[in-house]
Amino acid sequence: MNLIERVQRILLQPKDAWRDIAAEPTDTATLFTQYAMILAAIPAVCGFIGMSLIGIGGFGFTVRVPFVAGLVNMGVSYALSLAGIFVLGLIIDALAPTFGGQKDSQQALKVAVYASTAALLGGVFGLLPALAMLGLLAALYSIYLLYTGLPVLMKSAPAKSVAYTVVVIIAAIVVGVVIGAVSTLVLPGTGALMGSGAAVSVNTPGGKVSVDTAGLEAAGKRMEEAARKMESAQKSQDPAAIAAATGEAAKAAAGALGASGGTIAAQSLKAALPEKLGGLPRTALEVQDGAALGLPTSQASAQYGSDDKQVRLEIVDLGGLGQMAALAMGMAQGEKEDTTSAEKTWQEGGRTLHQRYEKDGSHAEFKTVLKNGLVVSVEADQLGVKDLRGFLSQVDLNALEGLQRKGGKS
């Protein structure tokens, strides 16, 4: 069956299409090269055209993402969306026994690929940013495709189809959060995604792919329990209970991605912020702990300055996501320069470093991903990269690398 016929059948006759798909012999390469890679190009390319060529306009003004930046975003979002589909297939497979289904990695990948059809096609609305909300409506149809496909391909118990679907959706949301976090730190040319430990690992072509299915199944049981609580909370119409159950589900989904191996205490990060930086006094301090949101993160930042000079120093622990960022940035080493700015990514002493500056001296930033995944960054206006590296030398990076995460090893 060709691409157009498959798209039409899965959208218009999903139940019949899933039965055909279940019986089809295929492999990962075929699923990606003949289907996923083609459809995933739609949101990537349309988003680039909409944001960089057409732009967002109103009241006589039009705002566009710079052309080069748009190309960068297109390449990164394309690569990471494919990685996200692959990871989702791993999660579907690992959770199958929890919901009375049978583990089958190839069938699980079929579900992930073909259920994404509506969401990927909805990316065409990215051509006109004002219509982007319609893309969300298209993505909602993918939930129905998922719901109809899981019992057919994974042979899950019919009575557990709703719970299975809910749990996979939650996991998909967390995958989206992961991709968003990584893409903000990635330069073009990367196709890597890695979770902490051995929970999930997706490398570039020719690399290894591994998954700790025991960890995923354990997370799946927690998500199933959370799904039951969500159902109960919905019936009771108790907002507090709904919020609590949703938080538990998000935490379990994060665990399925290997992103819940613990975090370094925010207060430990705060202690690493010096009282003065380059002779500038600390004028503001902020500490945040994201555990309450269901994703293991901690952050400490400080503002330093005087009347004519302002510097911001930030230390962030993204849990397992920090290791993803380190891998992705490490594989994206290189330089980029245009008439207004320049940036460079490289490795030094086992750390990944990234610098960017405006050529008119208006702004500069310097960032390093430490060996344990901590991200330390410093930025300022009217200062150069050399100044920022001098500021960063006043932070004890070796001590930060020695910090241990709660519930896991750094």
The count of strands amounts to: 14
Structural class: alpha+beta
pLDDT average, as an integer? 75
Order of helices and strands: HHHEEHHHHHEEEHHHEEEEHEEEEEHH
Largest sheet: 9 strands, antiparallel
Low-confidence stretches: 186-213, 256-260
Strand content: 15-25%
| Largest sheet: spatial strand order | 6-7-8-9-14-13-12-11-10
Specify the number of helices: 14
- Described by the principal axes of the CA atoms, the overall outline is globular
Proportion of helical residues: 40-55%
Q: What is the terminal separation in angstroms? A: 48 Å
- Rg for CA atoms: 23 Å
What's the SSE blueprint?
Blueprint: H1 3-12, H2 14-23, H3 28-54, E1 56-58, E2 61-63, H4 67-95, H5 105-115, H6 117-121, H7 132-153, H8 161-183, E3 193-194, E4 200-202, E5 210-211, H9 213-236, H10 239-256, H11 266-271, E6 276-277, E7 280-289, E8 298-306, E9 309-317, H12 320-331, E10 334-337, E11 341-348, E12 351-358, E13 364-369, E14 375-380, H13 385-392, H14 397-401
Antiparallel strand pairs: 1-2, 3-4, 4-5, 6-7, 7-8, 8-9, 9-14, 10-11, 11-12, 12-13, 13-14
Written account of the structure:
Helix content is 51%, strand content 18%. It is of the alpha+beta class. It starts with a helix and ends in a 9-residue tail after the last helix. Residues 186-213 and 256-260 have low confidence and may be disordered.
